[in-house]
Design brief:
This protein has helices at about 10-15, 15-25, 45-50, 80-85, 95-105, 110-130, 140-145, 145-155, 165-175, 180-210, 215-220, 230-260, 265-270, 275-285, 320, 355-375; strands spanning about 30, 35-40, 55, 135, 220-225, 225, 290-295, 300-305, 305-310, 315, 380, 400. The chain is globular and about 60 Å long. A hairpin with a 2-residue loop joins strand 8 and strand 9. A five-stranded mixed sheet has the order 1-2-10-7-3. Strands 4-12-11 form a three-stranded antiparallel sheet. It is built from 16 helices and twelve strands. With about 400 residues, the chain is of the alpha+beta class. Helix 4 packs across helix 12 and helix 12 crosses helix 14. The chain has one domain: Cytochrome P450 (Cytochrome p450, Orthogonal Bundle), CATH 1.10.630.
Length: about 400
């Protein structure tokens, strides 16, 4: 096992790509004792396993904890697991199928299309203020407020309450890192309790006074006799908020950091804004904001002669797969006009990211506005990475205009 793969090391978090290359060069499945996971670094395997029904985000639809050979999570963590376990990201069929179908009725492509003017208006306002201030921290001034405002707007969360969302989201996402310490688990549980109570109150209000927002649409979404339970609505709202807060924020800041490291590519994008659609996809491929997703092995699988038994967990290394030279020509090169780019930054299979069209809309809007209104934007301080590997992002990105 390569010592260079170390999700707790700041050096690895800052640049995991040499470790990924070493993993790909030496095999298709590597057992990593510290997290008791099988690391899967190749594109073809990651892509295939995302669609393989012998794996699942949960095992509880088929096995008890005992039957699966695992201990139940501590009772004190229950509020987090209830909240997280009822969202579509962590469910399997038949519940996943039912909930995703109902959520998709509310969160339609048309909904996203209708949001485009609002997203562009919000992005323009944020960038205008940022440019007028001469720059600052791109992360907190533009990257973060845009997706937070868009999701909060969609859900109908009052403006005065929006400051509560990011700390709750951040605390909950702390539980997705490998082997989180108990204090992080306690913070996630506390945030789960508070966030759930807040949303329960909002759902109650919407039942009495329906609006045109997504919470109202989730309450009224039904298929024959099927409806979403209150817990399923709460878990769906938190999942949308967390995805909007964490992945899109990091995709924006990480993407600009990549561009600053490739000044000639940034110059070509500034000279030709029509590159923006392919540039957004390439930035997602080149430095994937959620570089790893785990799956439970529900039935034995075999990878390159290695049997991975039921009860194991595989760590699908999206960040490595998206730089696999077997799938991408010149995989380690940033190519903003790359056409053949089936990256898996949004996953694949039944858990493909429901919010991908919205994320693309937000990224195109914020990058487009910054290219237009701040054409001379440059880095003013070398950024540091936050600790955390599963959701990977910068502490800040300080720039001047």
């Amino acid at each position: 096992m390569h010592v260079s793969f170390d999700p707790w090391s700041p050096a690895f978090v800052a640049d995991p790509y040499p470790a990924y290359a070493a993993l790909r060069a030496t095999g298709r499945a590597h057992y990593f004792e510290p997290t008791r996971q099988w690391l899967i670094p190749h594109y073809s395997d990651v892509s295939g396993l995302l669609r393989d029904r012998r794996l699942g985000r949960t095992y509880l639809h088929r096995f008890t904890h005992d039957e699966f050979g695992l201990e139940a999570p501590p009772a004190a963590h229950e509020p987090f697991h209830t909240l997280n376990g009822q969202g579509i990201l962590d469910l399997e069929a038949p519940d996943h199928t039912r909930i995703r179908r109902l959520v998709a009725k509310a969160f339609t492509p048309r909904t996203v299309e209708m949001l485009a003017p609002a997203v562009e208006r919000l992005a323009a306002g944020l960038v205008e203020d940022f440019a007028a201030a001469g720059g600052g921290d791109l992360l907190t001034a533009v990257a973060e407020p845009l997706p937070v405002a868009v999701i909060a707007e969609m859900l109908g969360i009052p403006e005065s309450d929006r400051g509560l969302l990011r700390p709750w989201s951040s605390a909950i996402c702390g539980m997705f890192e490998p082997n989180p310490p108990e204090e992080r688990a306690r913070a996630a549980v506390q945030a789960s309790v508070e966030f759930s109570a807040y949303l329960r109150g909002l759902i109650e209000e919407r039942r009495g006074d329906p609006g045109t927002d997504l919470i109202t649409a989730l309450i009224t979404a039904h298929d024959e006799e099927e409806r979403l339970t209150e817990q399923e609505i709460i878990s769906t709202c938190v999942l949308l908020l967390n995805a909007g807060h964490e992945a899109t924020v990091n995709a924006t800041a990480n993407g600009w950091w990549t561009l600053f490291q490739h000044p000639e590519k940034l110059a070509s994008l500034r000279g030709d804004h029509s590159l923006l659609p392919t540039a957004v996809e390439e930035l997602l491929r080149y430095d994937t904001p959620v570089p790893m997703f785990a799956r439970w092995v529900l039935d034995d699988i075999e990878i390159d002669g290695t049997v991975i038994p039921r009860g194991s967990q595989v760590a699908l290394l999206f960040g490595s797969a998206n730089r696999d030279p077997e799938r991408f020509a010149e995989a380690g090169t940033l190519d903003l006009s790359r056409e053949d780019n089936p990256h898996i930054a949004f996953g694949a299979g039944i858990h493909y990211c429901l919010g991908a069209p919205l994320a693309r809309l937000e990224l195109a809007a914020s990058f487009g506005e910054l290219l237009r209104r701040a054409p001379g934007m440059r880095l003013s301080a070398e950024p540091e990475w936050k600790p955390g590997y599963v959701i990977r992002g910068l502490r800040e990105l300080r720039v001047e205009i």
